[in-house]
């Protein structure tokens, strides 16, 4: 029995067609700028999002690091959210490697940052303070779609105050696909619309898009030239990386629209858990379902994941559990996960 692996959308295996695209990729040495498949991916995503240039990097963490260090100097700061990956989940890299201080803000209930909080965090030019240089946002945030109107106002505020704007769009296409569904428009157009608020955008290829490795940072030619230097310092200058980049180009063509299926399956999982005692489920915007255990159900929390794993369903968390849908989870997998979760909580 193949497990239904809902731990993350990073666990996907490349499809047969993606592997073929990788095998067929023309290769060169990307540190010399010679790899046609890397260049094609960078140009394709940059054009798609409305930027001059792109940079293929091994991970989303390195992409955010290159972005923050390309925007900021030593002694600058970036304003961001407490829950944002580039503050919370990247080992403090911008501070460690770049001497760039984060200024994290508390989130509102809908995941946004209050404009008044952003405004108040922008420091005056005074030697007491670090220089506020960058606003770094994230979409989706924990699977939540950030409102377009808020992205526009927050980034407009930053621009008026002379700050650069970076988007951690690890799951940009999940956001774009859901925004497109709500508006009845095209996902690529929505991706471009979200990106248009920012000076740089980082996109993960190895999450919902289903490639084995890689992210792309997009921005102006000048910014990307600085980021390329930082990528080299960080050890991210790869050679025949086209074998990986080809998977990214394949995914941008074939794996964007289908994210809607992952979102539908996440909704089905959440709906299937409605009404269980001690289980609170949020309706997911995209491909991540959180369930919170409350009251008596918390006593059983420690048994849940091992019990599920024995029965071929993998997830993460304890009192707050996370289930992520992706390319390698089908309807049968969702039915299995839903059935087992119902059984576990109904057993008493
Ligand atoms: C996964 C993720 C990253 C980092 O990606 P890695 O490739 O694991 O380093 C950055 N930001 C967000 C929002 C992510 O979900």
TrEMBL record:
Its EC number is 4.1.2.48. Its cofactor is pyridoxal 5'-phosphate. It comes from the Bacteria. One of its GO terms (molecular function) is lyase activity. Keywords: Lyase, Pyridoxal phosphate. Residues 5-293 form the Aromatic amino acid beta-eliminating lyase/threonine aldolase domain. It is an enzyme of class 4 (lyase). InterPro entries: ArAA_b-elim_lyase/Thr_aldolase, Low_specificity_L-TA-like, PyrdxlP-dep_Trfase, PyrdxlP-dep_Trfase_major, PyrdxlP-dep_Trfase_small. PANTHER family: L-THREONINE ALDOLASE, L-THREONINE ALDOLASE-RELATED. Homotetramer. NCBIfam families: GntG_guanitoxin, PRK10534.1. Belongs to the threonine aldolase family. This is Low-specificity L-threonine aldolase. It comes from Ramlibacter aquaticus.
